[in-house]
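seq:
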Amino acid sequence: MNSRNIILFSLVAVLYVGTGVFLSWNLALNILNLGLLSAIMALGVNMQWGYAGLFNTGIMGFAALGGLAVVLVSAPPEPEGWAQGGWGIMAGLAFGVAVIAFSTWIYRNLKRGTARSIALFVVLVGGFFAYRAILDPSVEAVEGFNSAVAGNIGGLGLPSLLAWPVGGVLAAIAAWAIGKIALGLRSDYLAIATLGIAEIIIIVMKNEDWLARGVKNMIGLPRPWPVPYEVDLQQSAVFLDWAAHYGLDPVTTSSIVVKLLYALIFGVVLMAVIWLSELALKSPWGRMMRSIRDNEVAAEAMGKDVTRRHLQVFVIGSAVVGFAGAMMTSMDGQLTPGTYNPLRFTFLIWVMVIVGGSGNNWGAVLGGLLIGWLWLIVESLGPGVMSVLTYGLAEGPLKVHLVDSAQHMRLLTLGVILLLVLRFSPRGLIPEK
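struct:
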C-alpha cells in the first residue's frame, strides 16, 4: 500500500475518531460496524464488477438471504410448528424440486418437438397443482398456530457463527440459479433481471410467514460468540468493579464493549476477505478474469469459457455479500424483511465501489468505510445543522418541515460526493493498478 492510500485511510480514521470525540463513541462504533459490513459487501460487488464487469443490481436479495440463514440456523426451533405441518412443508418443497429436476431431464434427453413440449407441459402444470396441494394445507396449519408469537417452523438452534457461512452458501446457490438464467443477457438487461429477482426474494420473505414470520419479523436472534448482552455485563461483578476502577458509567461502557467486540470480529473477517481477494486478483485466475472483462471476444478466441467464468465470479461475489448479510442480521438480533430496500443494500454499495475505486480491493474497503460514515453521520447531524441554518426563520410549518426532512440531506450529500469523485478522480480514490 503506497503513501497516498495510507493518507486516505488515515483521513477516514480521523472521521471516525472525531465522531467519537465530539459526538459519541457509541455512535462512532455503530457507524464503524456498519461500515465494516458494507466494506465486505463492497468487496463482493467489486469481484463481480471490478474483476469481470458484471452489473449486478440484486445485492439486496443476496444480503437478505444471508439474514434468512441466521433465522434458519440459529433461531430456536418451534416444535409445535413442525407438529402442525412442518414435515408437510418439507415434503411439498422436496416434491417441487423433484418436478423441476424431472422437467430438466425431459428437456435435455427428449428430442425437440411436439412430444417434448407436451411432456414438459404435463409435468410442469400437473406438478404445480400437485405441489400446491401438498404445500398449502401444511403452510396454513403452521401459520395459523399461535401466529401472534410464532406461526413458523423456527430454526435449528445452533450457534450464530455457523449461520454466517450458511448465509454465503444460500446466496451462492441463488446466484448460481440466477446466473444460469441471466448471465447470457447484455449488461443493462442483466441489471434489470437481478434487480427484479432481488425484489422477488424480498416479497417471498415478506409473505411466507412459516419461513421467518414475514413482516411480523423475527426478533431475539442469538448473538455470535463471544459477544455478550449488555445487561449481562451490567450484572457482572468483575465488569462493574473494572468500570468503577476507571470511573466509567457501566451502562454506556457495556454498550461500547459490545460494539468493540463486534468491530473486532468484523475486522478479522474483513481482513480475511481482503487477503483472499488479493490472492485471487494477483493469480492467473484474476488476470484471466480481467482479460475477459476488457475484451470478451479476444478471451473467447483464446479458448476461455467466458460464460462459465462469469458464473463462477458471480457466485463467489454473491456468497461474500450473503456472508456479510448474515453478519448484519446477527448484530441486529432480528430479521426485518421490510428494511431491505435497493437504496441501502444495492445502490449505496455501488456508490462505495465507484467512489473507492472499481477493480481495487483496497479501494472498495475505503469506499465502504467512507460512504458508510457519510450515510449515517449526515442522518444524525442533519436535523442539528438544519436547526442552525433555519435559526432566523419564524416558528411555523416551513421550519418544522425543513428540520424534519433534514436527514434526507444524505441523498444530496452522497450525490455531491459521487459527482466530485467522478469529476476529479473518475477511476475512484484508489484506482485499479
